[in-house]
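[Discussion] Sanity-checking designs against the backbone

I'm trying to build intuition for which residues belong where. Below is a structure token string of 745 positions. I'd appreciate it if someone posts a full sequence so I can compare it with mine line by line.
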């Protein structure tokens, strides 16, 4: 009788789990987190919502920290010349904190670039293969296609979201048409670069449909810079795919023709039918590409090449006004093209910004001014009075923030990665990554894409996914712990700045509810998290100005604002008004003169300084103190500076000034007071009359009573009495007339 055999219970080992169901590793989790970040990044509005940009930096640095903490010890850490160049650029942003034009801007700049470099290192250290690079590009295109559909739905009237179509231009997601155009451009070019070499049916359908959807949305952003970037990106794509140019042409021309037809239908007949037609055309084109064009690419390519040349010539002619667009196309289409002209490109204000930025750079050419430099210093160097938070040229922003050294590091980093993409261009994913980076960087020459972290997230993540060259470096434990400590410090900094922004977001709701005390408390919490938040300090001053016994607190708050924003004319201006309210016009003159030096193209600074100088001279005379002549001279000097500045502004730019740069009632009043104080009563009268005739209600009592005092000095009692009756309507104004009688005598 044999032994009974009992079943043996087997233990499932890790290799056996790998053959069947495998638990996700930390690498898998981080890889999918990066893909998710790229999908949602297009809806991150860094320019209009600063907390979004801080959130991006916080997430990227946080993910890199997690990976460095939990990374398997085996294997070298990825580090190359490109990483060194990126670290140098981040180091220059860190240096900018200690010599900033704006402390808040310097901290934000550090968080942004640390996040970008952390994302680049993280992706490169995860060592993506060709399939993973393809999935990363799919995530980019998926986000772009979702944004394109959103924009088209709003444009067609299917979905109501007015902020996604501004001035007839699709600006979905970013709420800024030119940045939206950049992402849609990337989506379209990637679809072409990946689609024409795709063999798998499902993938080819996806790339084709995404390209057809992206093109009309991109065209309807009406971004002139985006159109130029499309031409440049298309040229690079043709260069990379030169050996398969007929295949590319056979694929690209039907996609473009379908997209143009969809655009035509949307412009001429917007509505649900046109929106659905885009989806249908995308599907039909994708099926045709997969089933017909792929099989007969060479035959289709010859015909498509000829059609493509004719189509391109027609579009260029329409765009630059060589053809009478209204006579060729319906009004809805021709109206689009008439906004895109060569003259419009040449007259664009970005050329003015570049000239002003280069003048600013001459004052600090090597290391720049620190993060946020443009927004801090451009007031001082602007050709005319305009307001813009960005230079609308990313290289210009970078060179102002980090100087010539930083710009060289940035360009070397960019071209080193473009070289890697070119070197490994045989693989479709690598070639597409290089084209993606080139197209966005080309577009960034004339757009503020740095304001939207989504675009640079695409570049840094994609470039980090390129094949490695020679592995990495072994890192000692002490260096690893130092890197972890540095990353944790950046996480804390980014988190603190982010929480401050989130706290500040509550202010409009609290103010609308009439909770004044809670508004002030929220502002104090904001400033505890970020003591250099300039907007919070200005709002705190506004809140305290209407409260009793807050003069000392206002002064401390404003002095901290001026210290952290030394180039901000508003900080100096507010301090001047504070001193004026405290009865110290002499000190107010100092701050208003500083404000004028920081923004010499703003007529309001001349008005404020002239009026404050006249008030200081009146105060000195009324109190019998010396020094009145110095302030009288300041009034005349301010007027002379105004005339010289106005003469220096090109005539065609004067009309574009945010506030008309012209002789104003305020300047007229100040000159009248200065002449009266100098004893030139006859010379004072014309200025005082002009101030009364053209000035607003705020200036009228001051001008009317000064004119009355001049009439008294000239012996015209009746005329003086009439003005006193008209303007001396309150005890405060009667007291002011007595003050003038002591000063003008």
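Best answer:
Here's mine. Compare freely.
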């Amino acid at each position: 009788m044999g032994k009974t055999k009992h079943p043996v219970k087997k233990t499932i080992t890790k290799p056996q789990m790998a053959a069947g169901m495998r638990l996700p590793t930390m690498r898998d989790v981080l890889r999918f987190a990066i893909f998710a970040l790229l999908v949602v990044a297009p809806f991150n509005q860094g320019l209009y919502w600063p907390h979004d940009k801080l959130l991006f930096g916080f997430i990227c640095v946080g993910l890199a920290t997690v990976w460095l903490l939990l990374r398997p010890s085996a294997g070298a850490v990825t580090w190359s010349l490109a990483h060194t160049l990126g670290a140098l650029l981040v180091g220059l942003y860190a240096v900018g904190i200690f010599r900033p034009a704006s402390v808040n801007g310097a901290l934000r700049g550090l968080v942004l670039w640390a996040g970008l470099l952390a994302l680049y290192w993280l992706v490169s250290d995860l060592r993506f293969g060709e399939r993973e690079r393809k999935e990363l590009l799919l995530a980019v295109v998926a986000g772009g296609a979702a944004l394109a559909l959103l924009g088209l739905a709003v444009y067609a009237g299917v979905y109501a979201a007015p902020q996604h179509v501004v001035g007839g231009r699709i600006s979905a997601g970013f709420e800024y048409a030119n940045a939206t155009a950049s992402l849609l451009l990337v989506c379209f070019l990637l679809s072409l670069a990946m689609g024409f070499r795709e063999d798998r049916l499902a993938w080819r359908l996806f790339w084709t449909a995404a390209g057809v959807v992206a093109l009309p949305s991109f065209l309807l952003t009406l971004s002139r810079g985006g159109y130029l970037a499309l031409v440049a990106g298309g040229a690079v794509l043709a260069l990379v795919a030169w050996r398969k140019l007929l295949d590319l042409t056979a694929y690209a021309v039907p996609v473009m023709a379908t997209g143009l037809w969809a655009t035509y239908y949307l412009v001429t007949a917007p509505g649900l039918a046109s929106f659905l037609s885009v989806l249908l055309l995308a599907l039909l084109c994708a099926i045709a590409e997969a089933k017909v064009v792929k099989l007969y690419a060479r035959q289709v390519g010859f015909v498509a090449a000829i059609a493509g040349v004719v189509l391109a010539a027609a579009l260029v002619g329409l765009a630059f006004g060589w053809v009478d667009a209204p006579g060729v196309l319906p009004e809805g289409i021709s109206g689009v093209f008439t906004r895109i002209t060569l003259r419009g490109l040449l007259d664009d204000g970005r050329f003015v910004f570049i000239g002003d930025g280069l003048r600013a750079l001459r004052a600090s050419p090597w290391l720049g001014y620190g993060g946020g430099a443009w927004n801090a210093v451009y007031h001082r160097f602007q050709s005319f009075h305009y307001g813009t938070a960005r230079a609308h040229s990313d290289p210009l922003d970078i060179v102002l923030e980090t100087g010539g050294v930083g710009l060289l590091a940035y360009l070397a980093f960019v071209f080193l990665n473009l070289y890697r993409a070119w070197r490994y261009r045989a693989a479709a994913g690598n070639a597409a990554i290089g084209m993606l980076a080139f197209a966005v960087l080309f577009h960034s020459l004339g757009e503020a894409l740095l304001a939207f972290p989504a675009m640079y997230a695409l570049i840094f993540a994609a470039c980090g996914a390129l094949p490695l060259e020679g592995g990495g470096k072994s890192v000692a434990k002490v260096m690893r712990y130092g890197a972890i400590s540095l990353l944790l410090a950046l996480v804390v900094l980014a988190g603190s700045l982010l929480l401050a922004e989130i706290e500040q977001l509550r202010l409009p709701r609290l103010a609308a509810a009439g909770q004044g005390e809670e508004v002030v408390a929220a502002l104090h919490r904001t400033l505890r998290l970020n003591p250099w938040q300039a907007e919070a300090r200005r709002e705190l001053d506004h809140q305290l100005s209407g409260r009793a016994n807050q003069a000392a607190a206002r002064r401390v708050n404003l002095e901290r604002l001026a210290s952290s924003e030394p180039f901000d004319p508003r900080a100096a201006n507010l301090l001047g008004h504070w001193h004026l309210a405290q009865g110290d016009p002499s000190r107010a003159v100092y701050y208003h003169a500083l404000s004028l030096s920081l923004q010499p193209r703003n007529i309001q600074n001349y008005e404020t300084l002239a009026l404050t100088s006249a008030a200081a001279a009146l105060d000195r005379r009324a109190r019998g103190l010396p020094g009145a002549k110095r302030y009288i001279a300041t009034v005349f000097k301010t007027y002379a500076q105004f005339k010289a500045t106005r003469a220096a502004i090109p005539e065609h730019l004067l009309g574009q000034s945010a506030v008309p740069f012209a002789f104003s009632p305020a300047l007229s009043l100040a000159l009248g007071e200065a002449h009266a104080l100098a004893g030139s009563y006859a010379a004072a009268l014309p200025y005082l009359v002009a101030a009364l005739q053209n000035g607003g209600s705020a200036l009228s009592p001051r001008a009317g009573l000064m004119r009355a005092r001049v009439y008294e000095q000239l012996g015209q009692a009746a005329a003086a009495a009439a003005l006193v009756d008209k303007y001396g309507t309150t005890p405060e104004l009667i007291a002011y007339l007595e003050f003038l009688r002591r000063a003008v005598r």
